[in-house]
Specification:
This protein is of the alpha+beta class and about 270 residues long. About 35% of the residues lie in helices and about 15% in strands. The chain contains 6 helices and 12 strands. The strands form 3 sheets. Strands 3-2-1-4-5-8 form a 6-stranded antiparallel β-sheet, covered by helices on one side. Strands 7-6-9-10 form a 4-stranded antiparallel β-sheet. Strand 4 and strand 5 form a beta hairpin. Helix 2 packs antiparallel against helix 5 and helix 3 runs antiparallel to helix 4. Bound molecules: zinc ion (ZN). The site of zinc ion has 8 residues, from loops.
């Protein structure tokens, strides 16, 4: 337990709108979220820090003891499989929220809360350099690592190659639809300047019509949008922080950039290419 979190109360609940897990510290001006958009089920109550509303809260006393409290009578909160109203927990406790038993990792919540403190400049315990925030006794929050990101190169390459393929296909369909215009214009010019070769004009107009129909067909049967969506979904599941305690989507940053940063911007763990 880092000293900066002592005496703090962490509010936990569903993020209004985006549906991620919202983590807030009572009285702090910033909040953070965990997981992907829409990942938290509706049985988890919303967290509105400004109103002091949440699904549950973790109170941390001055000695670092943590108490989890269910905040609404219509909620359910479980600790290690048992429904609770208020219960002492530690960093290894299993917390589940709502009747869908949405599981949350205590360490992940503490890490997130710590990130809030860092963001607002409230953490004064990080005097051991970046990534080392283990405090006096109790559960030290070690982002740890380094974790290998080697496998993410293929994930990124796959993703960008597939995305490129889809974009090129869309471009070709776009180009195809400009061909009929050219043929139609050609036909019009022939009729205007050389009426004696009129049959050619009819042929050109016929070609224009056929290409236009092909273009329309391709446009109607094109699944680029659905494919892109699926691709993004798969990518967001795979392009995640290798730290098993984090697994946060690393964002649409190219592998090249990831390799340069060498750090997960969510859990601050070290990343390596080894
Ligand atoms: Zn991470």
């Amino acid at each position: 337990m880092i000293d900066a979190l002592k005496g703090k109360t962490i509010l936990i609940g569903k993020e209004p709108g985006q549906g991620r897990l919202l983590i807030a510290i009572k009285g702090a001006p910033k909040v953070t979220t965990l997981g992907q958009i829409g990942s938290v089920p509706n049985s988890v109550s919303r967290c509105k820090p400004a109103e002091g509303v949440a699904h549950c809260q973790i109170e941390i006393d001055q000695t670092g003891n943590m108490t989890l409290t269910n905040m609404k009578a219509q909620n359910v909160t479980y600790v290690n499989g048992f429904e609770i109203m208020s219960k002492r927990i530690d960093s290894t406790s299993t917390i589940m929220l709502g009747k869908d038993r949405f599981g949350v990792n205590v360490m992940e919540i503490l890490n997130a809360a710590q990130q809030i403190l860092i963001a607002i400049g409230g953490s004064r315990s990080g005097n051991n350099g970046p990534g080392s925030v283990g405090g006096a006794g109790g559960a030290g929050i070690q982002p740890g690592g380094p974790y290998s990101i080697k496998h993410l190169k293929d994930v990124w390459d796959d993703y960008s190659a597939s995305l490129k393929k889809i974009k090129i296909r869309q471009k070709h369909i776009g180009l195809l639809s400009s061909i009929p215009i050219a043929f139609t214009m050609l036909g019009t010019i022939i009729i205007g300047v050389a009426p004696e070769i009129r049959p050619f004009a009819i042929v050109f107009t016929g070609i224009a019509l056929i290409v236009m129909l092909i273009g329309l067909y391709l446009r109607f049967t094109d699944k680029s949008i659905e494919e892109t969506e699926k691709l993004n979904e798969k990518f967001q599941d795979r392009y995640v922080c290798p730290n098993p305690k984090c697994h946060h989507f690393l964002g649409n940053q190219p592998y090249k950039i990831l390799r340069q940063n060498k750090i997960c911007s969510y859990c601050k763990c070290q990343l390596t290419e080894e």
